[in-house]
Specification:
Two copies of one chain form a homodimer. Chain A is an all-alpha fold and 181 residues long. Chain A has a single domain, classed as Orthogonal Bundle (Tetracycline Repressor, domain 2). Chain A is 75% helix and 0% strand. Chain A contains nine helices and no strands. The longest helix of chain A is centred in the middle third of the chain and has 27 residues. The first copy, chain A, is elongated and about 55 Å long. The structure holds a DNA duplex (18 and 18 nucleotides). Chains A, B: InterPro entries: Homeodomain-like_sf (IPR009057), HTH_TetR (IPR001647), Tet_transcr_reg_TetR-rel_C_sf (IPR036271).
DNA sequence: GTCTATATTCCGATAGAC
DNA sequence: GTCTATCGGAATATAGAC
């Protein structure tokens, strides 16, 4: 049940936003009362923390599985993750929570910071190693390039929601092509 | 008074998000009662529409003023607009409203669509003309490149909120450097 | 145009029974 | 662990006086 709640909360955050969903939106589809949800997650911030923590674990598990691949294929996989979210009508967790950042509890803000650091660190290392192995070609610091890549992926989901999924496809394709050539 | 309300609502949308601010957040700082705000904007969606409309007018007015400049300097100006928002603690309107898109009224969604189309159209034309005049150098279609630029700018503000303003500076600088060289 | 006052609904959260 | 029941508060919105 706890897992079902977190999974559903994750979806709701991505589709409606953290401040726009309620305990009722969790309880009704699971056919329980909102008190049952409060039993597992006393406050909404507790639920938010669990969603972010699970997302970070998913991310670490994924990159762990990709670690034997060439760096450009590792980045392909990351784009695949975003593509799946795009066609599921989701935005990414950062893209949903960052605009609400000022309304969140300090512990949630701290978790979001950690999530951002983790993905920036991984993309930076991926680009750096990939350039060394001649699989990526780009100018400037790998850390700066990583910020560009991450911002492209994040906003591709925001733009896709407004303009349609083609926006994601065009961004994702051009992004990968730029780095490889 | 109507202008004051729209200006304040714009700020609140950018800082807290559309679903996280209330009529009280508008009324209190203006030293009026929430009924006075409802007089000018009967529903919250009416207020949201006015905010988007004013932002679009500001944008059209700006690009009109820039039209005599070289294209790379026009893009500098656009980055300047985002930089000011960054240091004011704001995200851009699209970056705030896109995650909440599914919770908004159809008229608001339509206005957001128009806003997205307008900025994509302008950046595309700017890049296309700039490339023709040898002020920009990039591969691929100008429209695809425009989506990359816009996604960089949008998410630079989201990342800056979480990671600090340096994230914006690094993205903005590398972005402009890529296009010029 | 702004006020007081209120209707209505919903939300997050808790108490206590089972 | 889930339930019923409810508290306290806040939100959007409206009616009617001034």
């Amino acid at each position: 049940m706890k897992d079902k709640i977190v999974t559903l909360a994750d979806k709701l955050i991505r589709v409606k936003g953290f401040n726009a969903f309620s305990y009722k939106d969790i309880a009704d589809p699971l056919s329980v009362k909102n008190a049952a949800v409060h039993y597992h997650f006393p406050s909404k911030a507790d639920l938010g923390m669990a969603v972010i923590t699970e997302e970070m674990q998913r991310f670490q598990h994924s990159v762990q599985q990709w670690r034997q691949l060439p760096e450009d294929e590792q980045l392909d996989r990351l784009v695949d993750v975003f593509r799946k979210h795009c066609y599921a009508g989701n935005v990414c967790l950062m893209g949903s929570l960052a605009p609400d950042y000022e309304t969140l509890t300090p512990p949630m803000q701290e978790k979001i910071n950690e999530m951002a650091e983790a993905i920036v660190e991984w993309v930076t290392a991926c680009l750096e190693q990939g350039r060394k192995h001649k699989r990526f070609h780009f100018k400037g610091a790998a850390g700066d390039r990583a910020l560009l890549v991450i911002s492209n992926l994040q906003s591709s989901l925001l733009l896709a929601r407004v303009m349609g999924p083609e926006a994601f496809d065009r961004i994702g394709r051009q992004l990968l092509e730029d780095l490889r050539s």
